[in-house]
Amino acid sequence: MTVWTSVSEHLPRLRGQAFHVAAAGTESEVGMVLSAAGFAIVGVNGAELAGRRQLYRGIAAVLRLPDTAGANLDALTDGLRDLPRSWPATDRMVLLWSRADRLATEDLLAWTMLAQVLSSASAQAWNAEPGRRMVFETVAFVEGGFGADQP
After folding, report:
1. Residue 110 and residue 132: Cα distance in Å, rounded?
2. For the chain, which domains are there?
3. pLDDT of residue 145
4. Is the dihedral of CA 147, 105, 48, 136 positive or negative?
5. For the chain, what percent of residues have pLDDT higher than 90?
6. Model pTM?
7. In a 3-state reduction of DSSP, which class is residue 89?
8. CA distance 29 to 48
């Protein structure tokens, strides 16, 4: 049985649950702490993906969602509903999104909407059918503050 454990339980300076914003440069520390806590770590680098559409495709790819999940935000939302099925042996996962500030500075609305979709995916993964529940959270790393916490 999967027991809920939030990223913030292991990194108290990251408050809340589901979607966290952390300072760039802390990726290694966050990854090591969460890996030691039993989270499967998947990462996407916003610096390597130009624009929201490439980012959607990149997120879909690292989360092993169907190729169609990266087509647009609606498709990504649909793909994330099946996240526990895509990772049947995983009960805790965190998406580490480095250079998340790139999308935020280029397209704040897209960044906000993606953050909401990833937050909703956390609730959906936790409320999946019994035996397929998953803890899923995202840590978005940003340069220059942007409301980030140091872990």
Report:
1. 30
2. 7-142 (3.30.370.10)
3. 59
4. positive
5. 65
6. 0.91
7. coil
8. 21
